[in-house]
Amino acid sequence: MPGSLFISNMLPDEARALIPAHITVDYHASELPLAKGELMGRLQGKDALICHIISKIDDDVLARAPGLKIVANVAVGYDNIDVAAARRHGVIVTNTPDVLTETTADFAWALLMAAARRVVEADAYARSGQWTSWKWSLLWGGDIHGKTLGVLGFGRIGRAVARRALGFGMRVLYHDEVRADPATERDLHATYTDRKTILREADFVSVHTPLLPATRHLIDEAALRSMKRTAILVNAARGPIVDEAALARALGEGWIAGAGLDVFEEEPKIHAGLVSAKNVVLAPHIGSASVDTRIAMGTLAVRNCLAVLEGKPPITPV
Ligand code: GLV
Known about the structure:
- By secondary structure, this protein is α/β, with parallel strands linked by helices.
- It folds into 2 domains: 3-99 and 292-309, NAD(P)-binding Rossmann-like Domain (Rossmann fold); 101-282, Rossmann fold.
- The protein has 13 helices and 12 strands.
- It has helices at residues 13-16, 36-43, 59-63, 83-88, 101-117, 119-127, 156-166, 182-188, 195-201, 221-226, 244-253, 272-275, 291-309; strands at residues 3-7, 23-27, 48-51, 70-73, 92-94, 148-152, 171-175, 190-192, 204-207, 232-235, 258-261, 280-282.
- The strands form 2 sheets. A 7-stranded parallel beta sheet has the order 8-7-6-9-10-11-12, sandwiched between helices. A 5-stranded parallel beta sheet has the order 2-1-3-4-5.
- Helix 5 (101-117) packs across helix 7.
- The two termini are 24 Å apart.
- Glyoxylic acid (GLV) binds next to loops.
């Protein structure tokens, strides 16, 4: 069945190679987001869209793309898409769950460990020429093994983060809207509790909820003030879940010890108080950015489009 597909940003060759020749592809091979007008222009007459989180697919965009059947987001999070509007316009939305779970959990742990053991500060120091003799008191950090990990949001990624804590002999507390089944709790040695207890007791708080009205600023000033002064906050989910201005104050004034952040409220802007803080490790939203996972994400997005264009159900609808 013929079809036309717009790919609004870079997509791996391996994924594009799966697209059969009878599908017309308009490929915008760029890292930069298209302006809304251009995005709407290029969507004219297209049956399918593959996009990244930098493309905002709102009611306007959907209303001006009458033939569109599917928006395939190359990400597990889809807060860049107005899913209710897509439903109204009869457009299927898909995301890329599962294929990025372990890679994102790895990266949350990379942030956690880097923040706890001050890896970024150590790297800067080692390169700086200041290291003239071994120093007993240099760059002391916090232990990870044997401590308490608190996971907020116990979906696929939150569980994968918790599973890694088994290797560090940690106590794991978690909170989610929905409690996990007893077998999962047993396997992961994870204890269900309320958010307040997690904030109060955890040495590491790692956030893994989707961005929803209810999770915007879930970690606000009150939450940060209730954490241990020695605690570390990790956010590899979505920036607006954490109140960045409050976090900058928390780090500057010692309400908590440190943070590891992959995501920010207004990407690519980062709050000045975070940029200047030494006790935070910053990354430019690369949680799922391993070679294999990026290819798998692109491939899944293409397979979702092909399924819908062939009149079959999508593989991973939201
Ligand atoms: C990345 O941020 C994703 O949601 O997959």
